[in-house]
Write a structure and sequence with these properties.
Blueprint: E1 5-11, H1 19-31, E2 37-43, H2 55-58, E3 62-63, E4 69-70, H3 73-81, E5 90-92, H4 93-106, H5 116-135, E6 139-144, H6 154-167, E7 171-178, E8 181-182, E9 187-188, H7 191-202, E10 209-214, H8 220-230, E11 237-241, H9 249-256, H10 258-265, H11 277-288, E12 291-299, H12 309-321, E13 324-332, H13 341-344, E14 350-353, H14 362-374, E15 379-382, H15 384-396, E16 404-405, E17 415-419, E18 434-442, H16 447-452, E19 456-463, E20 465-467, H17 472-478, E21 481-485, E22 492-496, E23 503-506, H18 521-540
Parallel strand pairs: 1-6, 1-7, 2-5, 2-6, 7-10, 10-11, 12-13, 12-14, 14-15, 15-23, 16-17
Antiparallel strand pairs: 3-4, 8-9, 17-20, 18-19, 18-21, 21-22, 22-23
Helix pairs in contact: 1-3, 1-9, 4-5, 5-6, 12-18, 14-15
Bound molecules: glutamine.
Glutamine (GLN) binds at residues 355-357, 383-384, 407, 462-465.
Length: 541
């Protein structure tokens, strides 16, 4: 087997240019040529992981099967590649420093002065190579967070410089920059790219390939000019033009020959061009869908699309396979009141209550549940959304006044959602929840079983609270059933109301494992029911 090859993806000029999508697209193209590829994200902030970050700060926190709380770019990697990532795929400066300081405390540095170079850079290099060595990947794509020139990313770029030197042609650097269009003069400008490459060169890194993000087609002339000023082949100047959907990027990158130039530089064989048949099939469904289904996503981070990234993508995957577009209405739960709930949730064929922490906007979520339950509108509650469905049922059907989760009300007389036993003595916030994939047994004859078509599933979790089993009998007798149970602990993982058309709450996060080629069964079932609703209302017109 040939040595693992390393591709580093850096960014310049501006943030949010889509390094994650470019990395995932390249990985997709290499994977479809039969290479074993993985992607890693290095984040230059001091938090040990993004688990403790507010979604307003950093978007959604994505959870891997092995229970790592990671950057949302890992979600893109999984959605594109259809292979699971792990803790090793996301490393932050906080984790790097923590490891180095732990080693220092153990005395591993034998009295030496511990410094950024070589100790921090060595730890960065170790983490990069770990993936290649351990899992025998053909190609490891490492995305360096932040923008070249930031103080914070300097040690990472230095580690890349050293690795490039050590590994020779087994390592290359792709630099992603922006070519802005000046409307006043009608020109595309390459100067920011030239400056950004200069900034990289100052710290000793010559990029091998440039990917230029642009809103207008780049002429051959512009490509040649950029190549000349930045010391790269003109074939290695790749255009990344704005597209309607991120799922089009792999196709665009293939047209531009990104995978071929990468393979050439890494001295790996370039055989036939992969067809990307299934991918293109999905894409054409996505583009050609004519009808739209309306889903309400009720949460408290709605001002920011990224906070519910995986949920929105999972809804898109599911709707696309039904040949529908999905219109996701983000509804601020804080603004939902008894007298406006019907107005706020008007015209929706499905209501999804989002995960979350803390009491802000929670009562609004409960009103959304009541509205869905009483009007028999397809409903999906995820994590806190499931807990909300339970609390709503307790208050309004079981008539347990002031029933609540202990998270929201310590003194509730009816703690239908309670802290898990093994969470009771935990005081640290970071990495201490019930995290990662757990087995669940799905009961036959339920809507959950209908969706999954199997009794044995494994889903990813991220929570501290759970359904309080001492109330289970009461719930079941009144019509809310537990349809998924953890076989080891007996924890309730799925609840549903069989009497309604489709009403389900899941304690886990199905959105994390929905991919382009494998849409998640729960989202598919939910969307299917919502589409049925649409058809009924259309007939009535
Ligand atoms: N706050 C709830 C808990 O910790 C739900 C968490 C979530 O929605 N991810 O149990």
């Amino acid at each position: 087997m040939p040595d693992t090859r390393y591709v580093f993806v850096t960014g310049g000029v501006a943030s949010s240019l889509g390094k994650g999508i470019i990395s995932a697209s390249l990985a997709k193209l290499l994977q479809s040529r039969g290479y074993k590829v993985t992607i890693q994200k290095l984040d230059p902030y001091l938090n040990v992981d993004p688990g403790t970050l507010n979604p307003y700060e950093h978007g959604e926190c994505y959870v891997t099967e092995d229970g790592a709380e990671t950057d949302l770019d890992l979600g893109h990697y999984e959605r594109f590649l259809n292979v699971p990532t792990s803790q090793a795929n996301n490393v932050t400066t906080g984790r790097i420093y923590q490891n180095v300081i732990n080693k220092e405390r153990r005395g591993d540095y034998l009295g030496k002065t511990v410094q950024i170079v070589p100790h921090i850079t060595d730890e960065i290099k170790r983490n990069i190579k770990l993936l290649g060595n351990k899992n025998k990947f053909d190609v490891v794509i490492t995305e360096i967070g932040g923008t070249v020139g930031d103080i914070e990313s300097l040690p990472y770029i230095e580690a890349v410089r050293q690795l490039k030197w050590d590994l020779g042609s087994n390592a290359i650097v792709i630099h992603l920059t922006l070519v802005p269009y000046l409307a006043a003069s009608g020109e595309l400008k390459t100067k920011p790219t030239q400056h950004s490459v200069k900034a990289l060169l100052e710290i000793g890194v010559q990029p091998d390939i440039l990917v230029l993000r642009t809103e207008k087609e780049l002429s051959q002339e512009i490509r040649k000019k950029t190549a000349l000023f930045c010391n790269v082949d003109s074939r290695a100047v790749i255009q990344s033009i704005d597209v309607d959907t991120i799922y089009e990027v792999p196709v665009k990158m293939q047209e531009e020959g990104l995978d071929e130039i990468v393979l050439e530089k890494l001295k790996l064989p370039i055989d036939h061009k992969p067809e990307l048949k299934e991918w293109k099939n999905f894409l054409s469904k996505l583009k050609n869908a004519k009808k739209t289904v309306n889903i309400g996503l009720v949460g408290k981070y709605v001002e920011l699309n990224d906070a519910y990234k995986s949920i929105i993508e999972a809804l898109i995957h599911a709707a696309t396979y039904e040949d529908y577009k999905v219109n996701v209405n983000l509804i601020q739960s804080e603004n939902i009141q008894k007298d406006n709930v019907a107005e706020k949730l008007k015209g929706l064929q499905g209501i999804l209550v989002a995960p979350g922490f803390g009491h802000r906007g929670f009562e609004g979520k409960l009103l959304a549940v009541t509205h869905a339950r009483e009007n028999n509108i397809p409903f999906l509650g995820i994590c806190l959304g499931m807990q909300g469905a339970v609390i709503e049922f307790a208050r309004n059907v079981l008539k347990l006044d002031k029933a609540n989760s202990k998270e929201m009300d310590h003194t509730t007389p009816y703690p239908v959602i309670d802290l898990m036993e093994d969470q009771k003595n935990i005081t640290d916030m970071g990495g201490t929840m019930r995290l990662g994939a757990y087995d669940c047994k799905v009961l036959k004859g339920t809507k959950a079983y209908e969706a999954y078509g199997t009794e044995h599933i494994r889903e990813r979790h991220r929570h501290r609270y759970e359904f309080n089993n001492s109330f289970l009998e009461q719930f079941e007798a009144a019509g809310m059933k537990a349809s998924g149970i953890n076989p080891e602990t007996g924890l309730v993982e799925i609840v549903e109301i069989p009497e309604l058309k489709w009403f389900m709450g899941v304690q886990f996060h199905p959105e994390y494992s929905s991919t382009v080629l494998k849409p998640h069964p729960i989202f598919r079932a939910f969307i299917k029911k919502a589409i049925q609703e649409l058809k009924v209302t259309e007939k009535q017109k």
